[in-house]
Design a protein that fits this description.
Elements lengths: L12 E8 L9 E9 L6 E8 L10 H7 L12 H11 L4 E4 L2 H14 L10 E3 H9 L10 H7 L12 H21 L1
Parallel strand pairs: 1-4, 4-5
Antiparallel strand pairs: 1-2, 2-3
Helix pairs in contact: 4-6, 5-6
């Protein structure tokens, strides 16, 4: 069976969140990744993956990006090489659809890194953007004023730990909780 012939309901979903040294795709780089492989039918977590990545060009990092990610040499002492992380991620969930909060940002960085390091993956080209689901669900309601992950989660009464600085694994777990909650709300309404 060709990859294109697989029913989307039968695909795993790879939830990804990255921390980067800034927002500029051309200048900044990945320094942390958190992933959840989720069964597309029952939405149960099958695998978890988290690692910090050694930055190659700290000289181009934005101060704000490093602060948001909580970067320090000490916290990154066991960080892995980007190419090694990419090899791991490429094997996590072949054929999976990629999902996340503002998922295009994460995908742009990840796809650029795959190409730069010549790492082949077999992910489905469809992206599931959880912020878009939140926009659609809350569009005609008074709250929230902003579509931040933590603001939406709080509105849903989801108990999330504070993640300052950001943490890719905690953020992707939060994204997944919001995703499941939104799906439940959409089905009920």
């Amino acid at each position: 069976m060709r990859k294109e012939d697989i029913n989307f309901r039968d695909r795993d979903i790879l939830f990804i969140d990255l921390e980067t040294t800034g927002l500029d795709l051309e200048e900044h780089e990945i320094i942390e990744i958190g992933c959840l492989v989720v069964n597309g039918k029952n939405l149960r977590i099958k695998k978890r993956y988290h690692t910090k990545v050694k930055p190659e060009h700290l000289e181009t990092a934005s101060k704000e990006g490093l602060e948001v990610a909580g970067y320090s040499e000490k916290a990154w002492t066991k960080a892995r090489e980007l190419a090694d992380m990419l090899e791991d991620v490429a094997k996590l969930a072949p054929g999976a659809m990629i999902a996340g909060w503002k998922v295009d940002f994460d995908w742009w960085f990840l796809d650029k890194a795959f190409k730069k390091h010549n790492v082949k993956h077999n992910f489905d080209y469809h992206l599931i953007d959880v912020i878009s689901l939140a926009f659609a669900y809350y569009r005609n309601q008074k709250k929230p004023k902003r579509l931040g992950l933590r603001k939406v989660a709080k509105l849903m009464n989801l108990d999330l730990p504070d993640t300052k600085p950001h943490n890719a694994m905690k953020d992707i777990e939060a994204t997944f909780m919001v995703f499941k909650n939104l799906l439940d709300k959409i089905v009920k309404d």
